[in-house]
Amino acid sequence: MTKKLSFYKDLFENSPDMIAVADYRTQKIIECNQTLLDSLEYTREELLSLSSVAELYHPQCHKILKSALKLYTGQGCLTNLELILKTKSGNMLPVSLNVSEIKDEKGNLAFFRNVYRDLSEFVKAHNDIAEQVKSFKRKCQELEKRNQDLDTFTHLVAHDLREPLRSINFLTALMKEDHSNTLSAESKECLLCLEKMTHKMNNLMNDIIFYFLLDRDARDMETVNLKDFIATILEIMSVPAGFNFKIQSHLRHLTIKKLPLQQVLYNLLNNAIKHHHHPSKGEVKIKVEDTKEYYVFHISDNGPGIPVRFQDYVFQAFKTLKNQGDDEGSGLGLTIVKKIVAQEGGEISLSTCEQKGTTFTLNWPKLET
Fold first, then answer.
1. What's the CATH number for 219-369?
2. For residue 277, how far is the Cα from the chain centroid?
3. Where along the chain do the CATH 3.30.565.10 domains lie?
4. Going by DSSP bridges, is the β-strand pair 29-32/18-23 parallel, antiparallel, or unpaired?
5. Is 207 exposed, middle or buried (0-12, 13-18, 19+ CB in 10 A)?
6. Residue 103: how many CB atoms within 10 A of its CB?
7. What is the pTM of this model?
């Protein structure tokens, strides 16, 4: 019997929950476990000397306790009532309270068993989540504001900045037409340079718009004929006479996101043309392989190659390997390629040898039909 009592005493004292037994009539605490004493920073003598169990509760809980008392009277128990206890030093301890009755040998109500479960970690986690949600909402609002700013910016580029360019092009064409017989060779050269610069500016604006709208463009997958797909890309390019393209692949069809891959291949092929040192003798080989996860494109040209000192810069925005006066590109072509490939979950790399050409290897993710 003594061993049993010792066993139950140990369970009571070392329970992870806090326990206080209060007299039914006086509400005075007559027994408590060590967990309650440790949590509220009291000695046993100090806690048992309190006039009522109500002294354990924080003042802001008194209204809740009154409502809970009515509920208890109707049900004979309380379950998972969230309250706040007050430690001896005045700190708040959030708890969940369960109250049950203890009756005497005659069946009369004698005591209340109050079991408190510490909710500190739960409340902390709840507050952390609430703070994260608040932060997320704030970032969403910031993102929405940035998207609105981006809409304003793209509208400015697409419309307002193009208007002066159209005027410059119109005036240039007008001067060439009306004064072709009177303009000096130097003046004609200046007008030609002006036309090139406005054309370059227009290309730059197109690339900037496309670059910033990449993240917001929803695209569906399609099944396309490989040769027709590449032929369509070549049709919209300015291919110099004598420049050849060869397709090497056993694949007939690809299941892809058409628009982004089309933009990537267009920029890579156009890059091969634009930077070729002998366009009339240019050649690009397009080899396509089918692996488990990717369609692998090897795009090889017989151009001048890329000097070692420039190879780290080819995918950076506004970097071009030609002199500014020689190149009509925006410097965004390969940057757009890099961004699209990363966005679609693919990979791109290059191998090059000076005066022996460049090969871009593109791993484009396959999509399940």
1. 3.30.565.10
2. 42
3. 219-369
4. antiparallel
5. buried
6. 11
7. 0.48
Residue in the structure block whose two tokens are 């993240």 = 215
Distance CA 19, CA 339 (A): 61
Residue pointed to by tokens 């500014």:
324
The alpha helices in the chain, defined as continuous H runs, are 2-13, 34-40, 44-48, 62-75, 120-155, 162-178, 185-213, 226-235, 258-274, 333-343
Q: What whole-number percentage of the chain has pLDDT above 70?
A: 86
The tokens for 18 are 């806090």
Residue 267: half-sphere exposure toward Cβ, Cα within 13 Å: 27
- Residue 347, strand partner residues: 363
Q: Which residues of 172-200 are buried (b: 16+ CB within 10 A; e: fewer)?
A: beeeeeeeeeeeeeeeeeebeeeeeebeb
* Fold observed for domain 2-118: Beta-Lactamase (3.30.450)
Cβ–Cβ under 8 Å, residues 85 and 56: yes
CB neighbours of 268 closer than 8 A, spacing ≥ 6?
A: 299, 334, 337, 360, 362
Residue ranges of the chain assigned to CATH 3.30.450.20: 2-118
Tens-digit pLDDT profile for the chain (369 aa)?
677 778 888 888 889 999 999 998 999 999 999 999 999 999 999 999 999 998 999 988 888 877 777 666 556 678 888 999 999 999 999 999 999 888 888 888 899 899 999 999 999 999 999 999 999 999 999 988 887 877 777 667 666 777 787 788 888 888 888 888 888 888 888 888 888 788 777 766 766 666 665 555 545 678 899 999 999 888 877 788 899 999 999 999 999 888 889 889 988 998 888 888 888 899 999 999 999 899 999 999 999 888 777 776 677 755 555 544 444 454 567 888 888 899 889 999 988 877 788 999 999 998 765
Q: For residues 208 and 329, give the distance between their C-alpha atoms in angstroms, rounded to a whole number.
A: 12
Task: Compute the distance between CA of residue 76 and CA of residue 82 in angstroms, rounded to an integer.
Answer: 18
